[in-house]
Amino acid sequence: MRRREFIKLVGGAAFTWPVNSSLAQQPQRVRRIAVLNALAEGDPEASARHVALEKALKDLGWVKGANVQLDYRSAEAKSELIGKHIVELIALAPDVFVAEGSIVAAPVARATSTIPVVCLQVIDPVGSGLIESMARPGGNVTGFTQFEYSLAGKWLELLKEIAPNVSRVAVIRDPTRGPGIGQFAVIQAMAPQHLVEFSPINPADPAEIERAIAAMARSPNAGLVVTSGGTAVHRASIIAAAARYRLPAVYPYAYFVADGGLISYGPDTIEPYVRAAGYINRIFNGEKPNDLPVQGPTKYQLSINLRTAKVLALTVPTSLLARADQVIE
Q1: Angstrom distance (rounded) from CA 327 to CA 329
Q2: What is the architecture, at CATH level 2, of domain 151-267+301-328?
Q3: What is the CATH number of domain 31-147+269-298?
Q4: What are the backbone dihedrals phi and psi of residue 254, each rounded to the nearest 5 degrees, phi first?
Q5: Region 164-178: what's the mean pLDDT?
Q6: Is the CB of residue 280 less than 8 Å from the CB of residue 61?
Q7: Taking Cα atoms as reference points, which of 174, 318, 312, 296 lies closest to residue 245?
Q8: What is the pTM (predicted TM-score) of this model?
């Protein structure tokens, strides 16, 4: 065989040799996201948040069940469940840990210094020591805040606007955590200018909430301010007791009003989950949490339930209705 023909034969054969299938396929590694929320399992608000997160991830190319897996746990704002679920989720070696709520974010951050943590629904992360600064969080934690403590003063203003005769206010808060303490302090400072007396209610369990609201209702011209942090898991009990004892109440989020509460003012609780998907995508692509600034809310919502106002015999001012983002009739 001539040399030229031999080279041609060998060269052509090179293209027909079998390729090792294990090298040819090499499927993309499935990423894992741990999600721990402070609400109860099956809570419609938690479900809405997670649907938004999954949709936003899908829009960025991360499809649940294909190239990303999400492991959810619900803590019901109970410290013993939070600790248990953190251990379980870290054992799964997630690529990102999503911590929902201040009560969850702090113990998650203490539990791991290597897994990237994206926090949501947190209040005052710098003051609480969760991060070093908003611009440069430091360490392995980044995320999105809810609001500043000063917003608590707005709740008192709204209560007086929708129920001008209110002169005694019970503030439902968690006294064991920074958000409950900080929000209560703001309301305490603003009470004199609104000519109201106030007292705290600490929501340990539904029975205690019922007793405290019933006691408050025995005073004339009473009302409620429900702060954030430890109250969402008890919202059914709080809203039901406020209705039973005919007390006007202001709440921190729109989903309280959707469940029958009178009025709320606070940040959009779904939008941060869409934004969080963007941070998760960036972390999957190699960016570090310390390079992702912690961001505040971009949308606030004023919501009013006119059905509840009618039951309480309250006339909602036209000026208040004009400012509302959501009115339930």
Answers
A1: 6
A2: 3-Layer(aba) Sandwich (3.40)
A3: 3.40.50.2300
A4: -65, -30
A5: 89
A6: no
A7: 312
A8: 0.86
